[in-house]
Amino acid sequence: AVEPQTIPTSFTITFPDPVPRDEVTKAPYDPYIKVHNTGEYIHRIGMEPHPNAPPSDGDGWNYQHPSTGMPWALIIPQEDWIYPGETVFIEDVYPAFRYWRESFGEHYPDWYAYYKEDPGGPVDDPVPPVITGIAPDPAEPVLWPGARTYELQLENGSDSRAEGVFFHAIEALPGWIALDEDTGEVTVDARELPGEEVYQGNEVTETVSFYTSDTEQKNTTENDAFTTGFTVKVPEEGDPE
Q: What does the angle CA 51 – CA 44 – CA 124 come to, to the nearest 5 degrees?
């Protein structure tokens, strides 16, 4: 194999409307180029098409990269970067480049640091277990002024503390229902009922949907949320304070 050689060169760019160096903003810039025979503009990933660019065949992203994630242009933030030789596929020299482009930049943003080294593909974040039940059965009302704690149960008996699972409610909970997002414990405290709800014989019911997520909330089970209801009842007898 022939290792690439560096040949020093220099050139001068003259701007029609130059800007003083101390007024130049920080990177990232958009150093695009125009292809004369096609009229298309080549940009870095994520940059908007030039206003004079021809109409796009799709949503405009073809000015930056096709569906494969392979970019048209790159800026390497490393002075001593070893670039691939002529006609050498970049992924043969920088294997992590593949993982970076296939994930559209999510994985291995430092792919250029893995010269002839394959760090291995990214491991997909596991989908957290879904909630399948709650114990004890919340069908029995919590009598005012008492409180009761329930535990959300996961499929296959998974332990939330061991699995790194977090619990969430889809809608905001009323003040008398509290969720511990780390353990999945739900506490219903009748003493937290609003004053206007505390009168003899009154029942207050709330339907709630719970779901789980991983640590960074990249994957959730919101589409398979577990729905249940909680009821607080003020007894017919006695004088609520």
A: 130
Residue 64 to residue 40: CA distance in whole angstroms: 11
**pLDDT, block means (10 residues), the chain with 241 residues:** 74 87 72 77 70 55 57 79 90 92 84 92 77 94 95 78 80 96 94 89 94 83 95 78 52
What is the 3-state secondary structure of the chain?
Answer: CCCCCCCCCCCCCCCCCCCCHHHCCCCCCCCCEECCCCCCEECCCCCCCCCCCCCCCCCCHHHCCCCCCCCCCCCCCCCCCCCCCCCCCHHHHCCHHHHHHHCCCCCCCCHHHCCCCCCCCCCCCCCCCCEEEEECCCCCCEECCCEEEEEEEEHHHCCHHHHCCEEEECCCCCCCEEECCCCCEEEEEHHHCCHHHCCCCCEEEEEEEEEEECCCCCCECHHHCEEEEEEEECCCCCCCC
In this prediction, residue 240 carries a pLDDT of 53
CA distance linking residue 99 with residue 94, whole number of Å = 10
- Structural tokens at position 170: 């889809």
- The pLDDT assigned to 124 comes to 65
Strand partners, 87: none
- Of 154, 126, 172, 148, the C-alpha closest to 211 is 154
Do the strands 33-34 and 203-213 form a parallel or antiparallel pair, or are they unpaired? unpaired
